[in-house]
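Researcher: Next sequence.
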Amino acid sequence: MSDSSASFLCPISYELMRDPVIDPDDNSYVKNAIEDLIHQSDISPITRQLLSIHDVRPNRALNIAIDEYHHSIQSDIKSNSLLINVHSSEITISTSYTNEFIHISIQPPQDESRSSCDICCVVDTSGSMSESAEIQNDKNEQYDLSQLDLVKHALKTIINSLQSQDRLSIVSFSDKAKILFRLTKMDDEGKTNALAAVEKLSSYGSTNLWDGLQTGLEILSKEQHSIGSISALFLLTDGCPNVEPPGGHLKSLKKLKKETNFTCVVNTFGFGYNLDSKLLEDISIFGNCGSYAFIPDGSFVGTIFVNAISTLLTTVATNVQLLVHSQHLPPTDYTRWYSTNSTSEGTYFHLGSITYGQSKDLLIPLSRKFTTQCKFTLTYGNTQNIKKSITFNLTNNLQQADLDLITQHKFRLEFVHYVRTALEKMCEIKTKSMFKSRQHKAAINQIQKLEDKMRKYADGKDEFIKDLFTDLTGQVKQAIEKEDWFNKWGIHFLPSLTCAHLLQFCNNFKDPGIQHYGNGKLFSEIRDEMDDIFCSLPAPKCSKDGAKINMSVFYNAAGGCFYGECKVHLMNGTTKLIKDIKPGDRIAPHGAMIRFVVKTICQNQKANMVILENDLIITAWHPIRYAGEWIMPCSLVSSVNEISCEAIYNFVLDQGHTMLVNDVECVTLGHGFKEDVVRHSYYGSERVINDLERLNLEQNNGGLIEITEKMLVRSIKSGLVNGLQSQQILVQ
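Model: Next structure:
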């Protein structure tokens, strides 16, 4: 689609507009789509300002232009294809050289709009999926959900995140595979039928993973792709296959790929601790360099699938391969963990997919004399399912190296190398008596060696290296050092983490280093929307009797507030009660100044809050830092209390974005933090700051802003707060 025809897509439905209408800000929509939205919220989806049904009028000029475009391409479009979001921009490449490396950076085009997708979910329904996945809520109540209950909720998250231009299929497998739901467009009817199919899933029998995988790949290979659609297979399982195809899974997968030349990406998701994670990772690699993710318990379901869907919907190129012509490159610390193969043409690097907002970066050790001789060819499939190629050499494209950037990628790839080497050595250990053997010491030495190399850089200003160092000295080190931790979760976790760093994508909100990947505007917007969808869906139905569950237990929750009688430390060494804090006060420990005091009026002069041991009284879902980690206060207590109070309080600071309340470090509004638990798509963003600045002008009360329930703007899709204004917005 040309740049002009890209504007023919409705920003609400992402469909080619028919009967387009235009609002006073010159934004155009499908008439029915904007009318439905106005009836629900009276808010513009673009400007977030009030918008009435009387404010929109027919856009006749656009209607004529769309008709002309439609007629010009009609002969090229088959009757059952979907016309959506075909990007005209292309991939670009930059190269630089140091004394050690050639740095090749493959850059996506600028953010446009989300890709459409075809997804086939291949779901393990073997007998082991009935085993429990216990989780506790803020009242310390336990829920005996099964693994299949969590998988069902993951599927519902996927279904509700899709739109009418997307298609979904569901395949279950136990003793054999069964097609539960054919590849179907995810309009309202399609979603209803897909959700009904999910409810039919039940656990029994053995684990014939190959039959499920083969069936799913055949569906995506045989069904005609939509124009501009990205296809992916999601394999969800909790264990080891006990039905083996002739020659094994990988040999069978290679054979099927040769026969069908399937182009879809295969992403694997392992639930629980009884996994063949090596097989799941290998399947994802042979599945066009997809990803493998480890889901140890229910708290990871949201974070993993929100990121997986967001990555898929921002994909701009698939099956990316780089050919280094006429060179047989021996594996090095910086290249050996990529999927590669050598032919008479040279060495191929298989790099997976490229998403908006995230480059792919390789460091290839080549001597200076080869720089004038080397030729490279990049091939990939674009969103129109057309194979593209770019051939280049270094003579005409070489740029001055950014040494800071090179250092980042050196440590990124060294992290992958040292951690994977340690993992290999740990996997060589066969019995408990051998655990403190030479292999274990060698594994620990690998981690220590990298820690020593990185330490002086981790004390600098580079945030990526700091967070990568945190990954190394935190979860990675723990996974290697202790026998029970490695055997239970380390052996499954380390491949997932290193895969994310190698291919540069974010697969959860929990590990600091990978939060630096996929930070484009489009990815962030989609991921925030997926956050809201997951937390707002109806709770999963327990296979066994149990209490009602709020899905925030399985993910993260909203912002919170303080009780007015709590104490805040000031920079001058004194304390003040929360209710007495004024704009302009300087707060310990960093000297930040109070910009706004946000006073939320309590309904019926009561609020549900938790009371911690040091008398901090705070809402259950207001993140605090405890033992160096962000947690929710409800995780430290057994009950929530109804507190009598006129109002509760929160603040906006000019820097730092934390404050000591009753000697506990607590987060404040608009903080911008991206770590798990503390991140929030609205309360942690610039959007809440913008809304409060506007309210401050309206109320004109010197930085004290009063909020009532009627002033909360709620998402039409999720019902969660995503805005503040001076009148109530009804959600239907």
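Model: The first helix runs from residue 3 to 6. The longest strand covers residues 315-325.
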